[in-house]
Amino acid sequence: MKSEIETKLEQFAIKRSYPFCYSCYSRAAQSGVCAKCGTDDCMREYPGHGVEFGTQWIYKAILESELEPISEGDAFEDYMREVYPETTVVGFLNLDTVTTMRDQDPTAWDCAQSEWMDAQLSDEVFFTPDNGTTIYSMSDVEALLEKGGG
Ligand SMILES: [Zn+2]
Prior knowledge:
By secondary structure, this protein is of the alpha+beta class. The protein folds into two domains: 63 residues, no CATH class; 65 residues, no CATH class. The chain is 47% helix and 17% strand. It contains six helices and eight strands; from the N terminus they run αββββααββααββα. The strands form three sheets. A four-stranded antiparallel beta sheet has the order 2-1-3-4. It is rod-shaped. Bound molecules: zinc ion (ZN). The site of zinc ion has 7 residues, from loops.
């Protein structure tokens, strides 16, 4: 099922692109119907980026060119630093909690990071257009839609 933000991004992509009839190899009317052959099975032309079916590739390119993706590792570290005390006493050592956790058990750290990220994505704190390869802050995506999406 498509999320609300994906629907908005699709509309945004449609606004920034044109229907394109591949058989006639020309732009079709804004309605999406080709004036020459009458087909409504049009691809989308995104100027400067080519012609493809669908809209996801278009908003992926828009997000890529207009937003800075977040670093999953940095975002998780920031979160962990909020949750845990800055330092932890081990014996007579006063150690940086986050660094110590990560160094002591990198596998558990990675596991926690990926669970946390899944939760952020399903809570729509973050948004990924490509199954987690690129991650954006949802507020950045919303600001972009507000600014340019109309
Ligand atoms: Zn045509």
